[in-house]
Amino acid sequence: MASTKTEFQLFLESEVNKVKGIYYPVKAGFLRRHLIKKVSCRKLHPNPNDEFCFPEIGPNYGIISQYEADYRRFGTNFPNLSYTHGGIAERIMIEKTRPEGYMILNGHHRWAAALRTGIPRLPVRIVDLTQESDIRKMLETAGFDKRVTLDLDGVVFRPDSETALEKPLPFPVNRYFRERLRLGIPSLFFFLKEHGYDIWIYTSGYYSLEYLQHYFKQYRIHVTGIVTGTARKAGPGVMKNLVKMTSEKYKSTIHIDNHTVLQTFTGSRDFRDYPLTGSDATWSREIMDIIGALK
């Protein structure tokens, strides 16, 4: 029986087979990340762990066709492209890989549309996500046996439209570090360190680890661990390894979000849940009162 697979499906299978089990992420370095703005489509590799590459799910050709139409109409001249024209106004998020090229983190359908349209190069943003080796180094330098975890995207960073924010960084630093900190974060982090807690930040965003490390240094606050790109489709054992590494280090974890403080204990199903009032103005003070009273 003749194959009914499209030319792109056959190409995708070939690419997945080429990189699966062979390619792995490496650090791109500051200069590469800031100087390289476009990369050849042929140097971009699909992530074998992404649903885009799963035969039973596969690419959405409706989405690809829409991107193809957008590319034919607008090209990739981003400075003149309105962000209302779909996802093609967003750069492909990638990380450098060995032995060569880059792995796609976000933008598989745009990459497919560019290949099918004949566009040779795509605008990209290269990031150095947190890797397992980074986690191990962070744990080696961690000073305590208990930790606090916070979500960067929804708790630590807040929209510019909100009023309960720390003052922005001074010019010209604020032109590079644009994110805004929630009111009370520096004081809370100082309090946690003084009370014997390591601080771990998690984000699904594709931030470079180095970027966030330098960001927090601008506020003179210490963060023990930063895990970026948690939405990345890594191998099935990666997150299991991360959980194992941190559970071996910490006897208890306090997770802080917008409305609760949740304390869990390694090796136990017991937990303590402390609700917050939801007031942005008193958020950090309420957390300090709760943690200060813990035994």
Q: Into which percent range does the helicity of residues fall?
A: 25-40%
Q: In what range is the share of β-strand residues? A: 15-25%
* First and last CA, distance: 70 Å
**Overall residue-averaged pLDDT value:** 90
In total, the number of strands is: 14
**Poorly predicted regions:** none
Overall radius of gyration = 22 Å
Q: Give the SSE string.
A: HEHEEHEEHEHEHEEHEHEHEEEH
What general form does the structure show?
Answer: globular
**What about the largest sheet?**
6 strands, mixed
| Helix/strand/pairing category | alpha/beta
Instruction: Count every helix, treating DSSP H or I runs of 4 or more residues as helices.
Output: 10
Task: Write the SSE topology.
Elements: H1 7-19, E1 24-25, H2 30-35, E2 38-40, E3 44-45, H3 61-74, E4 92-98, E5 102-106, H4 108-117, E6 121-126, H5 132-141, E7 146-151, H6 152-156, E8 157-158, E9 180-181, H7 185-194, E10 198-202, H8 209-218, E11 225-227, H9 236-249, E12 252-256, E13 260-265, E14 271-275, H10 283-292
Parallel strand pairs: 3-5, 4-6, 7-10, 7-12, 10-11
Antiparallel strand pairs: 1-4, 2-6, 4-5, 8-9, 12-13, 13-14
Helix pairs in contact: 3-4, 5-9, 7-10
